[in-house]
What does this fold into?
Amino acid sequence: MTDAPVPSTVIEAMRPHRSLWYDVWAQFRTHRGALAGVAVFLVIILAVAIGPYFHTIDPTYLDYRAKNLGPTWEHPFGTDNLGRDMLAQTHEHRQKLEKRAVSRGVQCDQENDDQGMESEKLAGAQRVGGGLPDSLAGLPAKAEQQAADYDDASQQQERSKEEAGEGGVAPRS
It folds into this structure.
C-alpha cells in the first residue's frame, strides 16, 4: 500500500496558530539594525533617567572661568559661552521632553475615557510609550521651525532699520 501525499491544507491545519504580532516579532528579532536601534533608544532613555544622579552639576550654574571649554572629565560635553555645563542642560531638556511625552499619552488616554471610546482605548503603557517616539521625531522639525522664525525676525529687524534710516542708507527726502 502506498502513502498518498497529504494535502497542504491538512498540514496547515495541524500547525499551531501564529498571530500577526508573533510574525512581526520573529522578523524583528532577525533584523540587526532594528535591534541596534532599540538598544540605542533604551540607552538614551536610561541615561536620561539615571544620568542626573551621577552628574550632579546644576544646568543653570554659571562658571565664567569655564567658558567655551571642550569636553573634560568635569564637563563631558563641554560648556557653552556662559560656562554652563552642556551635559546637565541636555539631561534637563531630555527629562522635560520625556515628561511631556508621558503626559500627552496620559491625556489622550483620559480623553478616550471621557468620550466613552472603549473600543479605541489602548493599554496605558502602550499609549504612553507611543507618545515618546513622536516627540523625539518632532525635534528636527522643531529646530527647523525655530531657525525659520529666527530668520524671519532678523529680516523684519533689517526692514525696520532701513525704514527708520538706521541701516546705513540715508532716507529719501
